[in-house]
Design a protein that fits this description.
This protein is mainly α. It has one domain: Serine Threonine Protein Phosphatase 5, Tetratricopeptide repeat (Alpha Horseshoe), CATH 1.25.40.390.
């Protein structure tokens, strides 16, 4: 199991010269002078995993927006009220301060390291490429959440009013960076070793991560820039994750437990039940993942009506596996890749297989991840309502529905997949926030603090994207 080193950030000290001079006597040797880059990198990884997997309504609403879960008592968030708890500000602060700032500092510290020999030189370069790949991943999430965000002027302590960069321009730059990172990584060398809490320092796996991320971003651009999308996807897919591979943060438990455990078990609260949106769909399809996703309510799987108060005792609960302290947060995996490549095949990209083949791979991969038997998975996929040639709707509905089902618990991915493919049909809550204009949100609103602290650039960004509203569509949302 990967070791969590974050606690060492409070204890680590730099090597100090034995020479006793005036500066020595004025240095507190029990406190860190500078944190080593590998621990900053690990801390950023944990902050990212925590934010991504969290279900605390003060942090994010992704499992609610994706309509995987609904609330039992306080239903504001399921009705898209993101202002009361100022969630936009929390997201901005966490992404920039707790994740990107640590990655930037990790890069600065590692760049200053003096190394000797080919092995050490390769290791240093690999570390810097991996840091950059994780930054690309983080900015990709931010653009998919907000649209235009501070990018070229972000993280400059001398500039507290950064401009918001065009989202499409950010996407194109992220693709350039990711491609260069993948090309630069040298799998013959090492990187962070055990301080890498996602890949264990495996450079070859980071290359696959990078290529999978390129496919993810590339396919998102297909409705916007077909040629650019095709070029990146076709170049990257063969070097992406293989069946069963993923990038995950393995929580060891204890003081470093998965936030889902902290929110669903340790808190002692019963704030969530399964939403009828996903339960009804899975019941209709006789989906064998139901016992992996939910607990039965008596003799049936029953979801609470999305957006309405749903008594905890009357509806299906979240399955025990998901509530375990050691449940891993999957950030990117082969299942996603397969569904992206099914889309690519429908766009007539050359990706080594047909849309049906990649669709089948995505469904089967999800079944395997959740521990469904081969016989049950095959029976499910043979149903006319699931089989690619006979399932209802166009290709976006077919792929979008199965991708949404597969991304359960990974609310940001489920909500983003819904927005990209407009599938499946989601329910409307009884009292949607005015900013949503009576529909499922298409983006998240900016940090409220930006309206006062960075008012000029905030106003310009809001006007450019069509208004800082939940209903405003992102540039790729065609």
């Amino acid at each position: 199991m990967k070791k969590i080193h974050i606690i060492l950030l409070l204890l680590i000290g730099m090597t100090i010269s034995c020479t006793k001079n005036f500066e020595d006597y004025n240095t507190d040797k029990k406190r860190a002078v500078e944190v080593p880059g590998q621990f900053l990198f690990a801390n950023a990884q944990k902050a990212l995993a925590d934010l991504y997997s969290n279900t605390n309504v003060n942090r994010n609403n992704w499992n609610l927006f994706a309509q995987y879960w609904t609330e039992t008592t306080y239903t504001d968030e399921a009705n898209y009220d993101v202002v009361n708890r100022n969630i936009g500000t929390t997201l901005f602060r966490t992404y920039y301060r707790d994740i990107l700032a640590d990655l930037k500092e990790a890069r600065r510290v590692i760049e200053l390291e003096v190394v000797e020999g080919d092995d050490a030189t390769i290791q240093k370069a690999n570390k810097l490429f991996i840091i950059d790949l994780l930054e690309v991943y983080v900015y990709n999430q931010m653009v998919d959440i907000f649209g235009d965000v501070p990018y070229t002027e972000a993280l400059d302590i001398e500039n507290i009013t950064p401009v918001y960069d065009d989202a499409f321009a950010i996407y194109k730059d992220l693709l350039i960076r990711a491609k260069a990172d993948v090309a630069g990584l040298d799998a013959s060398g090492s990187s962070f070793g055990g301080d890498d809490l996602m890949m264990g320092g495996d450079v070859a796996m980071w290359k696959k991560f990078g290529n999978t991320l390129i496919v993810k971003m590339g396919i998102t651009l297909a409705p916007v820039d077909f040629d650019l999308s095709k070029s990146y996807v076709q170049d990257a897919y063969a070097g992406a994750f293989a069946y069963g591979e993923n990038c995950a943060f393995a929580y060891p438990g204890g003081s470093n437990s998965n936030p889902l455990y902290e929110d669903l078990v340790q808190s002692g609260r019963h704030d969530f039940v399964a939403a009828n949106t996903i339960v009804d769909k899975m019941n209709d399809l006789s989906d064998p993942r139901r016992p992996k996703y939910f607990e039965m309510n008596g003799t049936a799987y029953t979801g609470g009506v999305y957006g309405e108060s749903s008594a905890f005792s009357q509806y299906s609960h979240i399955a025990d596996r998901i509530q375990e302290a050691t449940y891993a947060a999957v950030l990117l995996d082969y299942t996603q890749l397969a569904f992206y490549l099914a889309e690519a095949a429908e766009w007539n990209f050359s990706v080594g297989g047909s849309a049906k083949q990649w669709y089948d791979n995505g469904v089967k991969s999800s079944m395997d991840y959740w521990g469904v038997s081969t016989a049950d998975a095959d029976a499910y996929m043979a149903q006319t309502s699931v089989a690619y040639s006979t399932a209802a709707g166009d290709w976006k509905m077919k792929i979008g529905t199965q991708a949404w089902l597969a991304y359960y618990v990974r609310g940001l991915e489920g909500w983003t997949s819904y927005r990209r493919l407009n599938a499946p049909v989601l329910n409307l809550p009884p009292s949607p926030a005015q900013s949503a204009d009576g529909a499922v949100p298409r983006r998240h609103t900016y940090a409220i603090a930006e309206q006062t602290l960075n008012s000029v650039n905030y106003a310009a960004a809001a006007a450019k994207i069509g208004g800082d509203k939940l209903s405003t569509k992102l540039f790729w949302d065609k």
